[in-house]
Structure formats: structure tokens, C-alpha cells
User: Which sequence fits this backbone?
């Protein structure tokens, strides 16, 4: 079983990274094209509206994790009847969520736009962009149970290929937007909305064909099933809401105390950090279903190993893909953007530092979610994240420059990093010593040994510096970051591939 699951993790990781490579290139290009087509003010405005939509779609984030967890547990126990019942329960809940979202989000969003959005253009366009985005988000909610089923069955190719197609279509339309169309902001909103809703139709069509028994609709009258899903989602919701408050609340605070021009700089930094985080989270995403299934089958030794592996690899992958933006962001932005918005460079560096601190405990969250005992863990961790927004608001209100908001975020992320292992021990009596030995120690050792590279920044060209940094990083990863059995596993895969050729 272990060999098969290792192979499954490796294959799924490769699929995720192929998808991410394409999506990332498209994301970087349509960020550039979007800014060219819309201008700095309208692009900054759209980022503010996107923040509001993110608050609306927080339910989507909550329920993807919830659906995946309940379906993965049922599948891990081999109970397909229960998996079908869980799917139907989640589908009914999501249809209701879609309706409630439209009813509540439209008036609340209109109120916020009318009273708090700083924009010099036509405010009716802002309202229209918001409405389009809300309807697209509501459609995407219905696809969440199907997405959860694809993740639980580890059919990563399906949603990966859908993301690739969506990104390519959006890239083409964004490029055409530079020299065509009169109402560019509205066209951009329509294209973005279509890309938000499009995956839902693909997921439904595929799941109905590939998993007929699991997606066969039956109305579940056991209200206990609904309560279980909703109770679990409350715990997930605490985390999702606090993370949204932190990430998107930062953009709203920047808009409140500064301007949409400053939001453009933050939007660029967020685009970079989101892509980098996706690279790092791909390994976690491929390991996460295995953690849940092994916990459900009571294979705790394997589960512990996967928790440590997910934490270490997520951090090291995040560090790996972030190196150019930590070392030479000015050079990269100069090549990438026709006009670099204010504070884009400093925001990018600070957001990366914050994400690195949060990524080191990636496996812990998956394990806690697998147990189902999440409320205490979520309350403590996410109370600290919400506090970072409150303290950040007070910092900006007292006249500090915008980067101090992210200094506050980094401080509280360090507190979260320190408290998570303590909470894990309290919840499940996890052997934290193994986590320190197999995850924290190699990850931080690689980081510390990599620091001297920064001193060579003025001694060579940006391209040469990045190349040398990557060569040195790979050497450190092989010698310090990986365990002997992990090096042997990778070597075996490479040798088998060479023999096959």
C-alpha cells in the first residue's frame, strides 16, 4: 500500500505542477495585460472589488475542505453508500448557499461600495462589476461538492486541465482587451466571471459520467448528516474567515488609508504571492487526501510520516519558487511590467516572508481536519490571525507607512507557527519531537545555510545570482533537506526512468 500511495502522490504532484506552470505563466502575463488595458486606477479598483467578492465566496473555501474531508473519510473506509449520502448532503447545502449568497451579498456589497470605495470614475460601473462577480461566485458554489469528490478520488487531472483551459482563455481575452472593446472594465469583469463559473459545468459533467453511483441524487432525510457537515464547516469557517480577513482585509485597509494606486502595488504583490503559494501548496494538496484516508484506516505511523513530509516539502517548495522574488524582485518586475506600481517590490518580499512562516505547518492542519476535532484549534489559531488585522489597522491609523501592516502580519504569523504544535499535542497527543526532527530542523537548516547568498547581490548580475542560488539550494536540499530514505526513493525513480528509456 505504501508504495502505491507514494506513487500516487508523485504522479498527482507532477500533474499539479504541469498545470501550475501553465497557469502561473498565464497569470503573470494577464496581470501585465490587465494593467495595460485597464490602467493603474481601474486595475486597483478591480482588486478592491475582488476583495469584497472574496469575502462573499468565503463559504466556497469552507465547503470545499468540508466536502473533501467527509467524502475522503467515507471512501477511505470503503463505504460507497455513505459516500453517496455525504455527496447529496453537501450538494443540497451548496444549492441553498448559492441562493442565500445572491440574496445577501448584493445589498451588502452595494452598501459597502456606496460608502467606502474610493474611486474617481463612474460608480455605476463598480456596482455592475460587483453584481456580475456575485452571480459567478454563486454558480461556482454549486460545483464545490463535485470538486470535493474529484479531490477525494484523487482525479487531479480533471480540475488541472480545467484550470489550464480557463487560464488560456482569460489570457487571450485580456490581451485582446488592450486594443479592443470600449468598456474595458466591464468586459474584463465578464471574462473573469465566466472563468469563475466555467469549472462548475466541467466538474458536473465529468462526475456524473465517471461516478454515477456516487453522484446519484437522493434526498437524505437524516438531519444528523446535515448537522455534522455544518458543525465541521463552522470550524473550517473560523479559519477561512480569519484568513480572508487577513489577506483581503489588508487590501481594504490600504484602500482606506491610501489610494487605489497603492492597491495596484498590493495587487501585483498578491498576484505573485498567490502563484508562489500555489506552487508550494501543490505538494500538500497531493498528500492531503492520503493523510485523511490513512487516519480513517487507523494507519497512524504512515499518517505521522505524511504530516512531517507535507510540512517540510511545502515550506521548502515555497522557499524554492520564491528565491528570485526575494533576491532580485526589482529586476523581475522591470522585465514583467511596463509600469511598476508603488510599493510592489516591498509588499512582495513581506508577503513571501509571511507565507513562509505559515507554510511550515501545512501538514498539521490536514491532520487536525482528518480527526474532525477542529473547533478549539481553529479558534486559537485564527484568533491570532484576526488580531493581526486589528493591530495592523491601529498601526496605519497612527500614521505609519503601508509596509508596517505586513510587519504586523509577520509577527502574528510567527506566533501562529509557535502555537500550532502545542495545540496538536493537546488535541491528538501527536509526537511533536518527530515533527521537529523531520520537518522543522531540515527546513530551517536549509534556510539558514542559504542566507549567505544575499551578500553576493551586488557582486554579480541578477541572472547569474539566481542561477547560483538555485544550484546551491538544490545541493542543500539534497544533503540537508531530505532524509536518506527520501534520497533513495528519488534516486530509484530516476534510475528506473533511465532504464525504461
Assistant:
Amino acid at each position: 500500500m505504501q508504495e502505491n500511495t507514494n506513487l500516487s502522490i508523485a504522479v498527482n504532484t507532477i500533474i499539479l505542477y504541469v498545470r501550475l506552470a501553465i497557469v502561473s505563466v498565464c497569470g503573470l502575463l494577464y496581470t501585465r495585460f490587465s494593467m495595460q488595458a485597464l490602467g493603474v486606477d481601474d486595475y486597483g479598483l478591480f482588486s478592491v472589488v475582488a476583495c469584497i467578492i472574496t469575502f462573499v465566496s468565503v463559504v466556497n473555501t469552507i465547503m470545499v475542505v468540508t466536502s473533501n474531508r467527509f467524502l475522503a473519510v467515507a471512501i477511505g473506509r470503503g463505504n460507497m453508500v455513505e459516500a453517496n449520502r455525504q455527496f447529496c448532503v453537501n450538494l443540497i447545502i451548496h444549492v441553498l448557499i448559492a441562493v442565500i449568497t445572491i440574496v445577501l451579498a448584493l445589498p451588502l456589497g452595494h452598501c459597502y461600495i456606496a460608502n467606502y470605495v474610493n474611486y474617481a470614475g463612474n460608480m455605476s460601473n463598480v456596482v455592475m462589476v460587483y453584481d456580475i462577480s456575485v452571480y459567478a461566485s454563486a454558480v461556482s458554489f454549486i460545483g464545490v461538492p463535485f470538486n470535493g469528490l474529484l479531490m477525494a478520488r484523487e482525479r487531479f487531472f480533471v480540475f488541472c486541465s480545467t484550470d489550464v483551459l480557463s487560464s488560456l482563455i482569460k489570457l487571450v481575452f485580456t490581451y485582446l482587451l488592450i486594443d479592443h472593446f470600449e468598456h474595458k472594465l466591464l468586459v474584463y469583469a465578464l471574462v473573469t466571471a465566466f472563468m469563475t463559473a466555467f469549472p462548475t459545468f466541467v466538474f458536473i459533467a465529468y462526475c456524473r459520467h465517471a461516478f454515477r453511483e456516487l453522484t446519484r441524487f437522493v434526498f437524505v432525510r437524516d438531519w444528523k448528516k446535515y448537522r455534522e457537515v455544518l458543525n465541521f464547516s463552522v470550524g473550517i469557517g473560523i479559519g477561512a474567515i480569519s484568513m480572508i480577513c487577513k489577506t483581503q482585509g489588508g487590501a481594504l485597509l490600504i484602500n482606506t488609508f491610501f489610494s487605489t494606486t497603492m492597491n495596484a502595488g498590493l495587487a501585483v504583490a498578491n498576484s505573485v504571492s498567490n502563484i508562489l503559494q500555489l506552487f508550494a501548496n501543490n505538494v500538500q494538496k497531493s498528500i492531503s487526501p492520503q493523510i485523511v484516508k490513512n487516519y480513517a484506516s487507523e494507519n497512524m505511523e504512515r499518517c505521522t510520516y505524511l504530516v512531517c513530509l507535507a510540512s517540510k516539502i511545502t515550506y521548502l517548495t515555497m522557499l524554492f519558487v520564491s528565491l528570485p522574488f526575494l533576491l532580485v524582485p526589482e529586476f523581475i518586475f522591470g522585465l514583467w511590467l511596463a509600469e511598476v506600481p508603488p510599493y510592489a517590490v516591498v509588499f512582495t518580499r513581506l508577503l513571501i516572508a509571511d507565507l513562509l512562516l505559515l507554510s511550515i505547518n501545512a501538514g498539521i492542519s490536514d491532520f487536525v481536519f482528518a480527526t474532525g476535532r477542529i473547533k478549539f484549534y481553529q479558534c486559537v489559531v485564527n484568533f491570532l490571525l484576526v488580531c493581526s488585522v486589528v493591530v495592523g489597522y491601529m498601526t496605519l491609523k497612527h500614521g505609519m507607512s503601508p509596509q508596517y501592516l505586513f510587519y504586523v502580519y509577520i509577527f502574528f504569523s510567527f506566533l501562529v507557527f509557535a502555537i500550532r504544535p502545542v495545540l496538536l499535542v493537546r488535541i491528538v497527543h501527536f509526537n511533536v519531537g518527530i515533527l521537529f526532527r523531520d520537518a522543522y530542523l531540515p527546513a530551517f537548516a536549509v534556510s539558514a545555510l542559504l542566507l549567505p547568498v544575499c551578500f553576493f547581490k551586488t557582486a554579480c548580475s541578477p541572472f547569474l545570482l539566481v542561477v547560483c542560488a538555485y544550484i546551491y539550494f538544490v545541493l542543500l536540499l539534497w544533503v540537508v533537506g531530505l532524509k536518506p530514505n527520501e534520497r533513495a526513493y528519488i534516486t530509484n525513480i530516476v534510475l528506473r526512468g533511465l532504464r525504461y528509456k
Notes: The chain has a mean pLDDT of 78. The CA atoms of residues 390 and 414 lie 16 Å apart. The two ends are 27 Å apart (CA to CA). The chain has 19 helices and no strands.
